[in-house]
Structures are given as structure tokens and as C-alpha cells.
């Protein structure tokens, strides 16, 4: 029998809206024992929590700044006290800044993006991973939402790309470490989607062969990949080809191809949503 969230505890960061809310709905639809929602937006978080409570599952909504280690530690202690450790952890929270690198402010842009996209998943995972490892009789899942930007450089998103390259490298290394150390009951799935129509990337123009993705499709496929224990999910499938092309072509040849496909101009008209809570 395959992995199921039924009866299990699911924790989702960036859960107030967008993909986080959709992940929460999937957990409730699968009859999770408890769904723990983390987000910094208290009002939106409560709306999502109220929606889930109508589905009769146990819901815990916590206002958490995942970029702040002390905030994460305090919230994690509350979760452990109420539910033990989560069986499914979805590191979904993320932010973007779409501008040339030299236009970034160190605090409000560079540090903020790196803290939320790169350090926060590490902070959150580290709070629960030891207990996951120790409980060998129960399978656990960790889902880390990275980005296609973590595989292909794109102008006007240098800091975002850096944060997602780091997230991808950390997530896949964690997966390998768990396998090497014999903790195969804890499986890590890394998700690398292209642009998603959540509002976070408003104004972008999709490259050729990479349509704008719907958040419903991304969350559904990510959830399925998590249950299967799949190591890596890239969306759309054309990203697998671009990954190969980038690896085998000389840099200048790849630059010409990426430019022609529209990759290097996809952020030219970006407007975005300030401090969007989903990747």
C-alpha cells in the first residue's frame, strides 16, 4: 500500500494563500489527522484555517516568521507539544524580487529573499528531522519547493535564482544524506516549477515550451510525487531537456538558445506581488 496522509500530521509553510492553501486542501481531502498551517499573514491564515475546519479535520494555525530562527523554534516547540512531529513537511513559503542585482537593497531584498527561500526551509526541517529519523517505524515525507530558476540563470532575478539554487542543492544533498545514513523511511522530494500563476510572478512572459503553470496542477503533481517518494519533480517536462542542453552546450551557444527561446527576457515586464507568500 502506498504512502497516504490519512491520519497523519501535515505541516505547511506559506499556508495562508496560493499553493500553501492548496496543499492544505489536499491534506484535508486525504483525511489528514492534523493540518498545521504556518504563515506570517495572520488574517489570510485565519481564513484558510476556517475553511479547513469546515472539512472537520484538526487545524492548527500559527503566525510564524519562517525567516526568523527564534520564531521557528517557538512554533516548532508548540507543534511538538500538541502533535509530536509532522509526518509530512511541506516547505512552501517563498518570496521573489525581480530586478537587476545592483538595484537590490541588502536588507529588504537580498537578505530577505535568501532568509525566506534558503535558510527558512533549513530552519524548519532541522526542528523536526531528528524525530523523523528516530521513528523508523513510520514513513515521513519532506517536500521542498525550489524553482526552475534554481537550474537556469535568468536576468533580473539574480538573488532569487541564487536562493533557489541553494535550496535545490541543499534539498537534494539532504535526500542523499538520508539514504547514505540508512534513514530511507524519510524521503525528500524537491519540486522545481517554472512560472506559476499565483500572482507572485505577475507580468512575466513565459519562455517558449514553458507555459505559465496553474497552482492547482503544480500542487496536485507535487503531492503525488511526495506520496510516491519521487526525488525530483521539474515542471513543465521541457525543463528536463533544458537542463541537458545547458549541460552539454558551450556557454555562448546556450546563451543564444536561451535568448531565442525567451528565457532571458521572461522577466522584462515583471511587476510581481510584494512579499508574496508562495514560490
Automatic annotation (TrEMBL):
Keyword Oxidoreductase (UniProt): yes
The organism's place on the tree of life at top rank: Bacteria
One Pfam family from the record: adh_short
Similarity remark: Belongs to the short-chain dehydrogenases/reductases (SDR) family.
Organism per entry: Rhodococcus wratislaviensis NBRC 100605
Family matches, as InterPro entries: NAD(P)-bd_dom_sf, Sc_DH/Rdtase_CS, SDR_fam
Top-level taxonomy: Bacteria, Bacillati, Actinomycetota, Actinomycetes, Mycobacteriales
Signal peptide segment: none
Protein name (database record): Putative oxidoreductase
UniProt keyword annotations, A-Z: Oxidoreductase
GO molecular function, one term: oxidoreductase activity, acting on the CH-OH group of donors, NAD or NADP as acceptor
Amino acid at each position: 500500500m502506498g504512502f497516504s496522509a490519512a491520519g497523519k500530521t501535515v505541516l505547511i509553510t506559506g499556508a495562508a494563500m496560493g499553493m500553501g492553501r492548496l496543499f492544505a486542501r489536499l491534506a484535508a481531502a486525504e483525511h489528514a489527522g492534523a493540518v498545521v498551517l504556518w504563515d506570517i499573514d495572520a488574517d489570510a491564515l485565519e481564513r484558510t484555517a476556517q475553511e479547513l475546519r469546515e472539512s472537520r479535520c484538526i487545524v492548527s494555525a500559527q503566525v510564524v516568521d519562517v525567516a526568523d530562527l527564534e520564531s521557528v523554534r517557538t512554533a516548532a516547540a508548540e507543534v511538538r507539544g500538541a502533535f509530536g512531529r509532522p509526518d509530512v513537511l511541506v516547505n512552501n513559503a517563498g518570496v521573489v524580487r525581480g530586478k537587476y542585482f545592483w538595484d537590490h537593497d541588502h536588507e529588504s531584498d537580498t537578505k530577505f529573499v535568501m532568509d525566506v527561500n534558503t535558510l527558512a526551509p533549513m530552519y524548519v526541517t532541522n526542528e523536526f528531522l531528528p524525530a523523523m529519523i528516530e521513528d523508523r517505524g513510520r514513513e515521513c515525507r519532506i517536500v521542498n519547493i525550489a524553482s526552475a530558476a534554481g537550474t537556469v540563470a535568468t536576468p533580473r532575478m539574480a538573488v532569487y535564482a541564487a536562493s533557489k539554487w541553494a535550496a535545490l542543492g541543499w534539498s537534494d544533498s539532504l535526500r542523499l544524506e538520508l539514504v547514505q545514513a540508512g534513514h530511507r523511511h524519510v524521503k525528500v522530494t524537491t519540486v522545481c516549477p517554472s512560472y506559476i500563476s499565483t500572482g507572485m510572478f505577475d507580468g512575466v512572459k513565459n519562455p517558449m515550451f514553458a507555459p505559465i503553470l496553474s497552482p492547482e496542477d503544480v500542487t496536485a503533481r507535487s503531492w503525488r510525487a511526495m506520496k510516491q517518494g519521487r526525488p525530483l519533480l521539474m515542471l513543465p517536462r521541457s525543463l528536463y531537456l533544458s537542463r541537458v542542453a545547458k549541460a552539454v552546450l558551450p556557454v555562448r551557444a546556450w546563451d543564444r538558445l536561451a535568448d531565442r527561446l525567451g528565457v532571458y527576457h521572461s522577466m522584462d515586464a515583471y511587476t510581481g506581488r510584494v512579499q508574496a507568500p508562495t514560490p
